[in-house]
Design goal:
The chain has 183 residues and is of the alpha+beta class. 32% of the residues lie in helices and 22% in strands. The protein has 4 helices and 7 strands; from the N terminus they run H-H-E-E-H-E-E-E-H-E-E.
């Protein structure tokens, strides 16, 4: 096989895998999620980035940790404080970088009546970690799923948009001669 044929076969395999997770190459939100994951080196199969219906692409806390480890400057995460007030559990987390003098310290909270209330204290820690990791490793423009505690991360099921042109497709998404799109 030629290198072009091998590349096309790899794209077809990737498309099959992503379709198995519920991604549709003709869905703009899904294509954008794939582009973001590729840009940040996130693994969609490990749900380091997810699409939340009606909300868009979100990086999970595991995705933020992957970004931090790939950067090479993560020097630790410390839970500084946790507790509860009248309506929420809360946590304060510090993320340390090897190349900076001071930590990135941020609070997180989770409501007592949240959808995952049985794990409220842990959810507050995830929110705080996500906030601190985003700032410490400059992950901007894409929200963290763990910061949006009122929605469950799932793969979106949006209608296809046949009006999108080829020049609007991110790199790595191709249409073959049968007009079947792939990632």
């Amino acid at each position: 096989m030629s290198s072009t044929e091998l590349e096309l076969e790899a794209r077809r395999r990737r498309t099959e895998e992503l379709k198995a997770l519920g991604f549709s190459p003709s869905n703009p939100a899904h294509r954008i999620a794939v582009q973001i994951a590729d840009e940040l080196g996130l693994n969609l199969l490990l749900k380091q980035l997810v699409v939340i219906p009606g909300k868009g692409a979100y990086i999970t806390r595991d995705g933020l940790l992957a970004v931090a480890h790939k950067d090479g400057n993560l020097n630790g995460i410390v839970l500084e404080e946790q507790g509860k007030d009248d309506t929420h559990w809360y946590a304060i987390v510090s993320v340390y970088r090897k190349d900076m003098q001071y930590p990135f310290r941020y609070p997180g909270r989770y409501p007592f009546n949240g959808s995952n209330a049985a794990y409220g204290p842990e959810m507050a820690i995830k929110v705080a970690e996500s906030m601190a990791l985003r700032r410490a490793f400059v992950v901007t423009g894409v929200a963290s799923a763990d910061e949006a505690y009122d929605v469950e991360p799932e793969i979106a099921d949006s209608p296809d948009d046949p009006e999108l042109s080829a020049e609007m497709m991110p790199d790595g998404i191709v249409e073959d001669n049968d007009r079947e799109e792939s990632y």
